């Protein structure tokens, strides 16, 4: 209703606040998707920072309850919920989450304590969102060293979280390089387009500048329509 302009978005935010004690992954996933849409729309306004504060307020209680490490008897949905919540808090710049993500990432890179598969995406996205060229270089190095395609794809999907304009360009150039399988290029460009306002503008320009190569690569397949959609 809010998206259709029938009710105020403020009413939606008030409803969202009522879910702070919700334990269900599916509900949090839905809240997260809707907040992502709102965040994208507000990235062009003065309210962007305020919506990040709202995200931290809504997600921090469940984040504190879940913690970083699995508890005995937890199910698969609990692991998914932890990854979702920590990723959301990390991207929004929640101080404690950011500090812990940096600590765990350092241990992971140095081989002291390898991150579990469930925590890699949220940690990677947090490191990149608030990172510099060194963070991006480390992530690209992990991509090169990865034995499994699953890990390469995981890294490719989050590279767009980087926010500096020159680093965004580096990620876009990487998307068309031989390091990335042709079928995965769209994921990298899509990640940039969804990562930030600067990323959206840069990705749109990049697609236009490289349209001939992209069109020839994908012809009339579903990947070209997916690229246009993102």
UniProtKB/TrEMBL annotation:
The gene is Npepps. It comes from the Eukaryota. GO terms for molecular function: metalloaminopeptidase activity; peptide binding; zinc ion binding. Residues 2-229 form the ERAP1-like C-terminal domain. Keywords: Aminopeptidase, Hydrolase, Protease. Belongs to the peptidase M1 family. Gene3D superfamilies: 1.25.50.20. One of its GO terms (biological process) is proteolysis. InterPro entries: ERAP1-like_C_dom (IPR024571), Peptidase_M1_aminopeptidases (IPR050344). This is PSA aminopeptidase. Pfam families: ERAP1_C. GO terms for cellular component: cytoplasm; extracellular space; membrane.
